[in-house]
Amino acid sequence: TRARVCVSRLVVHVVATYRHIGVVPFTPHIWTSRTSKRRPLLQRWVSTASQAARAQLRICCCSRSCRSKDMERVQTRTCRPGRWMEVRVGRDVSGGVPRGRARTTQHLSRTVQLRTSIVGQALDNPTAGLSESETDVDKMMQGMKAFLQEDLENLFNERGIDKSKYQEEMEFEDPITSYSTLSGYLLNIQMLRYVFNPQFELHSVERTGKFELTTRWTMKMEFFGKFLPPQIWRPEMAWTGVSIMEVNPETGKFCKHVDKWDSIADNSYFSSEGLQDLLRQITQVYQTPDLESPTYTVLRRFRDYEIRLYRPFQFAEAPASDQRTKGEAFMKLAGFIFGENKENKKLAMTTPVYTTRESLQFVIGSDAGDATITPVRDDITCASAGGGVYAAVKFNGLAIASEVQENTRHLRRRLEEDGYPAGGEELLAQYNDPGTLPFFRRNEVLIPLAMEPSTLLQGT
């Protein structure tokens, strides 16, 4: 009798005995018979798990014998709703699963949990099974998640990570490095710490698989940052990405760590694209003055632009609509910073200078405190920027109108391609004083984004 089984009511856990006894859940897929488009079949499939020596089967719910590339033969003897279904399993062509028998049960609601038994022995409880073990796995993974959230704060400090949660056969891979032992993994961390002076910021930890956790992070580095003074060439580098951490269920320890960078498409080892990304950052020539500037976190760094989350800051603003008025506004704001205010307070120099379509802005540093600094001139106003999410593209040279327009068009085009909604007019940020050679100047075009930071702090 041909069995017609509604897939929405059938999810089967199959018992397979191959030196060990285990239960492995699977999701059935519907396939259509060649002879009739209305004849649903469940694809047959057998595989063995190397460590647990278990088998997964997708069972054919038809009344006749049938063949597939994975199995020699599967025969359904009875298949009726609410009854037992007995399946003869042929030998796996790829080698591994010997001839044997498995018993399954028809699902009563949405899922069937089947307690295993040896071949030929009756099933003791068809509605029990994985609930207890799944709960144990959930507890273990929740503990590993909490461990990462706390332990990764020590990734590059003197304390270091807790080695007890990593097994000795630890596999690590990113686009330009690879290690297969815990000692190599720890050596890589120490090398980064002493050579690049890294700053690591963890944004989120999510469970993305049964035994898998994924972290999202930002890491900043300075090439030979501990050995070279700021006045000498010392490029700043940044990466954002995810780390996929795999847990060994037998040891309860991390056994694999794979880093993926947002800035490249090919994240496999050894990636030429990853090496080019590293060299591009090391050889950057623009300089950033050692002055206070608005605080931001890079949430996404792509090959040619980045997305930042700015914290609120204060600024002084003067109107400027063309090149002549911009020069006048610059001198007025410089006077305000150097003490031309009602409090007669001299403020520290800051960077960058922001230019909008109608004004020039100087950042007010933290030395102003919470006190209000009142300008003497009526055409200077002080305000607070609320921070937010901005996209930024960097370029060196003179920030002439044509260069600014070209970089603005490029950034808006890239945002549209990547699906990030622009939320307002652009800003020009200039970090260096007029005496800096154009080749070494750092300029940026910033565009506000109409999106919440939380959407960028999580996810893969």
UniProtKB/TrEMBL annotation:
Q: Which PANTHER family does the annotation name?
A: HEME-BINDING PROTEIN-RELATED, SOUL HEME-BINDING FAMILY PROTEIN
> Do you know which InterPro entries this protein is assigned to?
DUF2358, Reg_factor_effector_dom_sf, SOUL_heme-bd
Which superkingdom, per the lineage? Eukaryota
Q: Which family does it belong to?
A: Belongs to the HEBP family.
Q: Kindly provide the name given to this protein in its UniProt entry.
A: SOUL heme-binding protein
**A family per Pfam:** SOUL
